[in-house]
Specification:
The protein is mainly α and about 110 residues long. It has a domain of about 70 residues. Helix content is about 60%, strand content about 0%. The longest helix is centred in the middle third of the chain and has 33 residues.
């Protein structure tokens, strides 16, 4: 795979940020409190509460990803950008495309 240019990485980050912001908005809408006066039945209410918990966990993960993406975007011009934060080796372009919020190469991330 060819090496990505700074502009390509910036475009990738912006696209991922927009996508993540959209997902966060959906999760926020889905994690609204379950009203006790809704006539949905006991089992359905328990299911709704369980789904709300799952959505809240996904929301936290998406917010964490967005924070990392914005950090990467803010440090795009850093001389160390694209290098693994642990071993210092160049992060392959494929890794940047698949997981642009990760500051680690595949070996150090696992």
């Amino acid at each position: 795979m060819k090496e990505l240019s700074r502009d390509e990485i910036e475009t990738l980050l912006k696209r991922e940020i927009r996508k993540t912001e959209s997902i966060i908005q959906e999760y926020r809408e889905g994690s609204q409190p379950v009203a006790p006066d809704d006539a949905i039945g006991r089992v359905s209410r328990m299911d709704a509460i369980n789904n709300k918990s799952i959505t809240e966990a996904a929301l936290r993960n998406a917010e964490e990803k967005l924070t990392k993406l914005r950090y990467m975007q803010d440090h795009l011009d850093s001389p160390d950008f694209g290098n693994c934060a642990r071993c210092g080796q160049k992060i392959p372009s494929g890794r940047l495309i698949l997981k642009p919020e990760s500051p680690y190469c595949v070996r150090c991330a696992s």
